[in-house]
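Bench log. Compound arrived from synthesis this morning; before running ITC I wanted a structural hypothesis for how fe (ii) ion sits in the protein. Inputs:
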Amino acid sequence: MTENNLKTKKIISLGPSGRAVAQPMDEGLLDNFYEHLTMERYANVQYFSIYLWFQERDLDGFASFFLNESQGEMEHAYKFANYFVARGQTVKLNEIPAPVQSWDSIEDLISYSFNMEADLTSSLQQLYSISERISDTRTNVFLDPIIDAQTKSEDEFAHLLGKVKFAANQPSAILLINSDLKKK
Ligand SMILES: [Fe+2]
């Protein structure tokens, strides 16, 4: 081995996947990231289950809204997984709980969704503050647009919850919301 080769070997560190790593990822941060990935995957399955609940009740506007949400959560999961790969990590997939499939009312279901969005935001904020504390700027830059989109998502669910609360389970009002969602 030439002296140059030796130098190259020394300066490039490799992550667990064998890929070159510019800045190693903190293990504590990574554990929080894997947990967050599980939350995104859970949201994907939960929204898919809600999509089915509305499909079974012929509320196709609500159904397409939740199918879209479900797909959005899977895209978030891809984004996180691809970020781990880019940082030379292997992607750990944890078990996800079974989704809730029975609801007492549409309001309960939307409230549950709103809380799930708020939990996702808290988890993202936690990731953000850990990365800031350990000066992992790459992660902060990665999280910026994601946190922005997540805040918009909370707002969207708060708006939908407000409308559903106002409808107070009256079929004609629920059908109006349903057709509004279909137009989106
Ligand atoms: Fe998400």
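What the model suggests: The longest strand covers residues 13-14. The pocket of fe (ii) ion is lined by residues 40, 43, 73, 76, 120 (CB under 6 Å).
ITC booked for Thursday regardless.
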